[in-house]
Design a protein that fits this description.
heterodimer, A: 340 residues, mainly alpha, MetI-like fold, 2 domains, 14 helices, 72% helix, B: 567 residues, alpha+beta, Dipeptide-binding Protein, domain 3, 7-stranded mixed beta sheet, 4-stranded antiparallel beta sheet, 32% helix, 20% strand
Chain lengths: 340, 567
């Protein structure tokens, strides 16, 4: 049953992705500007403009451009695994995405881990002892973390930890500019440092990541605490908990059973949040000069770099679909009714 | 399997070490002993091919001019009060070429190249490199034909529009030919005053042809892909060490550089997109230099120990763009009313924190041939009200019907700098009765409407820098009508006197007659209020005190080989 469920979800995901690709391809061509002007610059003659337009393929009809993008007109396209070349850099979009994406994934993965390590126990505590000190504390923390936008916290953290206290590195990216990065294997600087036998680089990467991860985790832990607390509170009101208590099970075991029930909806929301943050971490990336996929997307949109926009949308959508699929599988494993 | 074990064992050994190192290690690594400079920029070069897609981006040009060299440059003149050496635009200086002369009989320029100039790849400069560079430009094989355009403007023979129609016309032929190993001849259509200024620009940098040709392929015979994405082989002071697009650009000194190995052995250009971060990183000493801070941040840096602001009034200007084809801007009195209502002094004081000066012309005042065409007391709100009434809009009556035209566009990405200034202008214009609304739009959309559609009615513009240092070139570029060869006539001026002046600028040799015609053209442009000039603002850098030797160039790119660092 699980196999059919996964196949069904993959098929639906594939159709969603294809429709999205076509929609994005067509929609960006409705943007209110011709991108050629940006590339030719100030000193372009009409001949230079025409040559540039031809080089970008924009002198072709829309169906022809779509065919080229998909790879059904003879050249390399999506079907051949090519996302095209960026109009800004001339580099392959796939290579650029492969450089930018791990930066965001590394930031988000550590941030979510930290946020869950903080948020899940606090949420559980708040639900188990409603009105207690932990519950009140987490309520205040949740309100505090959500009271300002993330870039505002980021700037404040830089000011406090870098400028005033001097205990964190400046917002210079993933490593000091003076450090040669290790060869990219996973794209995660913290792991690649180890794989290259350069633990000093990993230590440095951890230091440079500490402030952005702290900021992102601080923001994320608020909703995670709320979600876990609410789901846990609902689970504690369920009949099986009443029965467990009536049967005389210890409170700790009751709480664990309730947590199992609360886990599935919480995981779903955390997964949705992860997918959303793939593109939404752009402000943290920007403030800490991290050069992740969010910044790449913004740069591409502002430059009307069609191949890059198409590539970013495709990759982020594909990852979101995979994350959602994993959550659904996990959900189905925890609660087999979901796979029906 | 063995590889996996290798990684796992490494992991087990190093994790505890890392934990200790993170907890107890230094916040940032120590500076290396060799002279290294960390330069913070909005972006790093996106491409290094000046015929490539990133040629128009200033950061890309910074990469090109530090890796490659032109045939000639400008001599350095005096230093200004900030210690920045300024070019003397009246004097050309030898660079890759040690001498040059015009041959009237053959209508050609003959360049004698330096001997013993070596590239990063170890190849010696010869006439073949110059021929290759021009041949590459004429091939119009890159994404954007910048080399062709500049050579065409310089009047180099055969660089005309036929190359876009006829493949045979793309061959260099004898337009640029090797005379001997170190001598090259460039044939021209006549003694064009723009020829030498154009030879100094980034679009005329000379390639190391041997190294470039090594990376040519059947699909890409001029190696655009390699030059754009790997490195630009040239004879410049630096060699590319590492380049991560959108992140970092690292150059190492070319120890064979013909003007002597640069004092700075390593330059790290790091992308820091937020100007506030660039500010605090220079302030804290983690970086040595930064560009493109906001005027407020530059101003704040003046009080910081160990850092300073160095700058120059070079060629960056701010003006109001009013489209001649869009009512009510088709009305001269109306344009003049707007121009006279602009609170220049207030903008200098509050928009640029004093780091600008009033601009009274249509070309940068530092360029040869500039004419100061406006009165000192041009700002006059009472005169503006009178002119507004004469234009048919007393106290702004009747302007409500032009709401779309009166939306003041500016580049949204420059909000931090232009936003406050646009608000000051809006207030000043509303005071005389002109109901202006602000309209920030993305740079690409702005560029499209300015350069291609030419339909922006009203805009605040701070980004026009004529790459060729010549008032006549600026005149032709911005104000000649399309019939007279105008390319970026964004406000659609069509004036026979201006066209005649532009034609004279493009065709006459340097001399009194040409200068007089260009001056006439500029005065005419002031009369018809082609642009409403506001200020010339300083091009500035945030610099730590231990950095010296800054020089300014019209492309506004730092020449790192001129810098010295003393720790």
């Amino acid at each position: 049953m699980m196999g059919r469920f996964i196949i069904r979800r993959l098929a639906v995901g594939g159709i969603q992705l294809f429709v999205l690709i076509i929609a994005v391809f067509l929609l960006i061509r409705l943007l209110p500007a011709d991108p050629v002007a940006r590339f030719v610059g100030l000193n372009a003659s009409p001949e230079a403009y025409a040559a540039a337009k031809s080089n970008l393929g924009l002198d072709q009809s829309i169906p022809k451009q779509l065919g080229d993008f998909l790879g059904v007109t003879g050249g390399d396209g999506l079907l051949q695994g090519s996302l095209g070349r960026s109009w800004v850099t001339g580099d392959a979009v796939a290579a650029e995405v492969a450089r930018a994406l791990p930066v965001t994934l590394e930031l988000l993965t550590y941030s979510f881990l930290l946020a869950c390590i903080i948020g899940v126990p606090l949420g559980v505590l708040g639900a188990v002892r409603p009105g207690g000190a932990a519950d009140k504390g987490t309520l205040v923390f949740g309100l505090f973390a959500g009271s300002q936008p993330e870039f505002s916290w980021a700037i404040m953290f830089i000011f406090v930890f870098f400028v005033v206290l001097g205990i964190a590195p400046g917002p210079l990216g993933r490593l000091s500019p003076l450090t040669d990065p290790p060869t990219a294997i996973t794209g995660f600087m913290t792991i690649d440092g180890l794989l290259a036998g350069r633990p000093g680089v990993t230590a440095e990467a951890v230091r440079y990541l500490s402030l952005p991860v702290l900021t992102q985790a601080f923001i994320l832990s608020g909703p995670i605490i709320k979600m876990v607390r609410q789901n846990m509170a609902e689970a504690l009101q369920a009949d099986f908990v009443l029965y467990a208590r009536a049967a005389g099970l210890p409170e700790r075991q009751v709480a664990l059973s309730a947590l199992h029930a609360a886990f599935a909806p919480s995981m779903t929301l955390i997964g949705v949040l992860y997918g959303f943050m793939l593109g939404g971490a752009v402000l943290i990336e920007s403030v800490f000069s991290l050069g992740g996929i969010g910044q790449y997307a913004i740069r591409s949109i502002l430059a009307f770099d069609y191949p890059a926009i198409q590539g970013v949308v495709l990759i982020i959508s594909a990852i979101s679909l995979i994350v959602y699929l994993l959550i659904d599988i996990l959900h189905a494993a925890l609660d087999p009714r979901a796979a029906l | 399997m063995q590889m996996q074990f290798h990684y796992v064992s490494r992991l087990l050994v190093t994790v505890p070490w890392i934990a200790i190192s993170v907890a107890c290690g230094p916040i940032a690594p120590d500076r290396p002993s060799e002279a290294t400079l960390i330069y913070l920029a909005e972006d790093v070069p996106a491409g290094l091919d000046y015929d490539g897609p990133a040629a128009a981006l200033p950061t890309s040009q910074t990469g090109m001019v530090n890796l490659m060299e032109p045939l000639i440059g400008y001599a350095y003149g005096d230093e200004n009060e900030d210690g920045v050496a300024l070019p003397d635009f009246e004097t050309f200086a030898p660079r890759l070429s040690e001498s040059w002369r015009y041959n009237e009989a053959r209508r050609s320029w003959v360049f004698k190249l330096r001997e013993g100039v070596f590239s990063c790849a170890g190849n010696e400069l010869t006439a073949d490199d110059v021929v290759y560079t021009f041949a590459r430009g004429k091939s119009v094989s890159g994404a954007i034909p910048v080399g062709w355009f500049l050579a065409s403007t310089a009047g180099v023979s055969g660089f005309d529009a036929s190359v876009f129609e006829d493949e045979a016309a793309r061959v260099i032929g004898d337009a640029v030919r090797r005379v001997d190993r170190y001598t090259v001849e460039i044939r021209v259509s006549g003694r064009n005053a723009l020829f030498l200024p154009i030879m100094t620009t980034y679009g005329m940098l000379i390639f190391d042809s041997k190294e470039t040709q090594k990376h040519a392929t059947d699909d890409d015979p001029w190696a655009h892909d390699y030059v754009n994405n790997v490195t630009a082989p040239g004879f410049g002071p630096y060699c590319l060490e590492r380049w991560a697009k959108n992140d970092m650009f690292v150059m190492r000194a070319n120890e064979n550089y013909y003007r002597g190995a640069p004092a700075l052995k390593r330059v790290v250009i790091k992308r820091i997109p937020q100007s506030s971060n660039r500010f605090i990183l220079v302030k804290s000493g983690e970086a040595d230099m930064a560009e493109r801070l906001t005027p407020r941040e530059f101003s704040a840096l003046a009080d910081v120990d160990g850092a300073r602001v160095a700058g120059v009034v070079g060629n960056e200007t701010l003006f109001l763009h009013m489209n001649f084809k869009t009512p009510p801007f088709d009305n001269l009195k109306f344009r003049e009313a707007i121009a006279r209502a602009l609170p220049t002094e207030k903008i200098i004081r509050n928009g640029y924190f004093g780091e600008a000066r009033a601009w009274r012309g249509v070309t940068p005042s530092t360029y040869p041939g500039f004419v100061d065409a406006l009165d000192e007391d041009y700002y006059d709100p009472d005169a503006a009200r009178r002119l507004l009434a004469e234009a048919g809009f007393p106290e702004g009556e009747g302007l409500r019907g032009f709401q779309e035209s009166l939306r003041l566009a500016y580049v949204a990405e420059k909000e931090a700098t232009l936003g406050p200034i646009a608000t000051m202008l809006q207030t000043a214009l509303r005071e005389i009765g002109v109901p202006v609304e602000l309209d920030p739009i993305p740079l690409t959309q702005y560029g499209d409407r300015q350069l291609v559609k030419k339909d922006l009615p009203f805009a605040l513009n701070d980004q026009e820098k004529p790459v060729v240092v010549d008032a006549g070139y600026a005149l032709s570029l911005f104000f000649a009508s399309p019939d007279a060869g105008g390319i970026n006539n964004m406000v659609n001026v069509a004036d026979p006197s201006v066209d005649a002046a532009a034609l004279a600028a493009a065709s006459l040799p340097a001399g009194e007659e040409r200068a007089a015609r260009i001056a006439d053209g500029q005065r005419r442009l002031a009369e018809i209020v082609a642009w409403a000039p506001v200020v010339e603002y300083r091009t500035q850098w945030a610099v730590r005190d231990h950095v010296s030797g800054l020089t300014w160039h019209p492309d506004n790119a730092v020449r790192f080989a001129d810098l010295e660092i003393a720790r």
